[in-house]
Structures are given as C-alpha cells and as structure tokens.
C-alpha cells in the first residue's frame, strides 16, 4: 500500500509539471538522458554515479513538490532553468567530469546559482508577506533582500563543501596550482613578518611513511576556488537584483524577470489547477482502459 501511494504521489508531481507544456518537454528529455546515464553507470559498476542519477531524478520533482505543498506557481521558465541546472551540475559536472574537463564549468554554474537564488529571494518577499496586511515595499529594499539571500545561500554552500572535504576526504573545493605564495606562517622568528616565495617550479610532499609526491608549482587547498565561487555568485546575484529592481520600478509585469518570480496562488487559481490535474489523471485512466 505505501508503494502504491508513493507512485501515485510521484505521478501527481509529474502531472503538475505537465501543466506547463514547454517545461514538461524539457523535463522529459532530461529525465530520459538521466535514465540512460543511470543504465551506463550500472553496467560499468559506477555506483556513486547511480546514486547521483537517482538524486537528480528526485531533484527534478522538487519544484512541483514545492508548488503542491506551498500552493504557489513556479513559472515555466524558472522550472526549465532549474532542470537544466540540476542536469549540468550532477550529470555533466559530477558523472561526466565536466568540472575538470571543461574550463569554467564550475564558474558558470555558480554564477547561475547566484542568479537563481536572487530570483528566489525576490519571490520570498511576496510569499512571506501574503498572509500579512498589504505593505508597499520599495523596489530597492526588495532588490537588497534578494541579493543578501543569494549571497547567504552561496556562503552556506561553501560551508557544505568545506564540511564534506574535511570529514569525508572529498575535493568539492577544487584545489589550484599557484607559482607564488606569501605567508607570515613562514617567518622563522614568528613575529608576523610576511615571507614571500616567488617563481615556484615544483613542490615535494613527503609523508611519515617516507612516500613522496612531486608536482609543478604549489598546491592551494581550496581557498582560490572558494573565493572565486563567492565572487561569481556575487556577480549573478547582483545581475538579477539590478534587473529585478528596474523591473519593479518600471512596473514591467510581463518582463522575463517577472517570469522568474514564484507567485502565491489564490483559492480560485488553486482549485483550477486541481481540476486540470484531475483531468490529466482521468485522461490517463481512460487510455489505460482502451483495448
């Protein structure tokens, strides 16, 4: 019985995606590609990839779950960007190693993350105040809230990466090779004087067992990657905040920026969407009865 209810719940979430035809087409294509990658990972014994594929399929349903739980409408454009982001990050980035093979892949995704989180921040202002008395908020105030929300999410994600690297020995904060360092930790007198080493050609690391590894340059452990991620998150958050501010100030309700805003559903709108979902389910049952 629980499995039947779970399948029905998942089917309902998929039907909710189908309410927007374009978003559903993209979802169907990306879902099929994920299933292909999942089969490939099973055949090659890449079980971590199998887990990432399963996670991606679950994440694809999160927008419709939020719509169903919070009674909101996520625009089709927003859903399409979320689907694309999940596929690019988990399937292409992690499983197909685009983070390593494609220069700037991580940078593009972190910029997009800052952009999307700013859009979510814009929406939260409306969603969190829908049960309150109407308040006339300054467009600048909304833009600042969106920007700060996006930057907060970016910082929290860097905490997550640092935690996984520290406790599980991963390399989510990708390391970088540098040819110069400057540090007060190298001061033999321990008086806080900066010691600089330039033109580093190679570094040798020797472990307690006597094993040694030599590589070109000096290895920076994640700091450059973290700061670069926060910087591009800043760029993405600032870009949407500026566009969103201009959209609110000019009252451009039909702009593409407005198309990225999650909006609460009125009672009539919610009942209408429920009737459409019932119609989709009824049509599917009729097709199944046909000989």
Ordered list of secondary-structure elements with their pairings:
Blueprint: H1 2-17, H2 21-44, H3 47-60, H4 62-70, E1 72-73, H5 76-95, H6 98-101, H7 105-128, H8 139-168, E2 176-178, E3 181-183, E4 195-197, E5 202-206, E6 212-216, E7 218-220, H9 223-250, E8 263-264, H10 267-289
Antiparallel strand pairs: 1-8, 2-7, 3-4, 5-6
Helix pairs in contact: 1-4, 2-3, 2-5, 3-5, 5-7, 7-8, 7-9, 8-9
**Strand segment tally:** 8
Helix content: 55-70%
Low-confidence stretches: none
DSSP helix count? 10
The overall pLDDT average reads 88
| Shape annotation | flat
Whole-number radius of gyration? 24 Å
The end-to-end span amounts to: 27 Å
Major beta sheet summary: 2 strands, antiparallel
- Helix-strand sequence: HHHHEHHHHEEEEEEHEH
Query: Beta-strand percentage?
Result: 5-15%
Question: Given the helix and strand composition, which structural class is it?
Answer: mainly alpha
Strand order of the largest sheet: 1-8
Describe the structure.
The chain has 291 residues and is mainly alpha-helical. Helix content is 66%, strand content 9%. It has helices at 2-17, 21-44, 47-60, 62-70, 76-95, 98-101, 105-128, 139-168, 223-250, 267-289; strands at 72-73, 176-178, 181-183, 195-197, 202-206, 212-216, 218-220, 263-264. The strands form four sheets. Strands 1-8 form a two-stranded antiparallel ribbon. Strands 2-7 form a two-stranded antiparallel sheet. A two-stranded antiparallel sheet has the order 3-4. Strand 5 (202-206) and strand 6 form a beta hairpin.
């Amino acid at each position: 019985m629980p499995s039947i209810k779970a399948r029905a719940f998942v089917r309902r979430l998929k039907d909710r995606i189908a309410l927007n035809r374009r978003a559903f087409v993209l979802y169907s294509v990306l879902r099929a590609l994920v299933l292909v990658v999942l089969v490939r990972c099973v055949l090659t014994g890449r079980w971590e990839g199998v887990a990432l594929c399963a996670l991606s399929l679950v994440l694809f349903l999160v927008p419709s779950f939020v719509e169903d739980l919070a009674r909101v409408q996520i625009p089709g454009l927003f859903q399409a960007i979320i689907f694309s982001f999940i596929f690019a990050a988990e399937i292409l980035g992690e499983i197909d190693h685009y983070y390593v093979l494609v220069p700037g892949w991580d940078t593009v995704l972190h910029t997009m993350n800052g952009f999307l989180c700013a859009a979510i921040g814009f929406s939260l202002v409306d969603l969190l105040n829908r049960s309150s008395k109407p308040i006339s908020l300054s467009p600048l105030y909304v833009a600042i809230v969106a920007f700060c929300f996006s930057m907060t999410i970016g910082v929290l994600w860097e905490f997550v990466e640092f935690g996984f690297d520290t406790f599980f020995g991963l390399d989510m904060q990708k390391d970088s090779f540098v040819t110069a360092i400057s540090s007060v930790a190298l001061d033999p007198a321990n008086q806080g004087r900066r010691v600089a080493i330039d033109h580093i050609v190679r570094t040798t690391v020797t472990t307690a067992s006597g094993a040694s590894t030599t590589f070109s340059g000096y290895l920076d452990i994640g700091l450059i990657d973290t700061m670069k991620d926060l910087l591009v998150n800043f760029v993405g958050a600032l870009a949407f905040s500026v566009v969103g501010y201009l959209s609110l100030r000019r009252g451009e309700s039909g702009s593409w920026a407005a198309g990225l805003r999650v909006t609460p559903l009125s009672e009539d709108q919610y009942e209408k969407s429920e009737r459409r979902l019932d119609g989709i389910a009824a049509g599917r049952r009729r097709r199944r009865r046909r000989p």
